[in-house]
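Example record for the data management plan.
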Amino acid sequence: MSVRVVLTQKSRPYKIEIFGLQDNFIGTLQSYNDSFIGQVIEPVVEIKDDGSQSFTCSIPKFYINPETNLKMENPRWGDIKNGILAENTRVLKVFLEEDGEIKVYPFIVDKITDKRDSHFSVYKEIEANGLAFAELGK
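Corresponding structural encoding:
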């Protein structure tokens, strides 16, 4: 039976960091105490029956700053434009707090797709697969 975990800071604290293929740290996509709600939305980790893993999330172009209530351009959107987050050359490490321990799940970014929702919001959809299975497939 596969396990699908929708990440929320309240139910299960998490952090997402960006690394290069040589395991060099590049930056933080989402931290445990990130106050900018909406910079990364709908993060989901899925662990399938065969042991493979996947990660998806969306990065909206704009978000509402909770402190000023103003519409702001999402700096994470700029990370994609500037190549900080790119397909097949970046690894996302998801750090999950589980039972008082930190578990790390590494994923390689497979696809970044431009999307629009029914409210005409623009966002990038990030799809990544477990790094272990990506290495086996080479």
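Summary line stored alongside the record: The chain has a mean pLDDT of 84.
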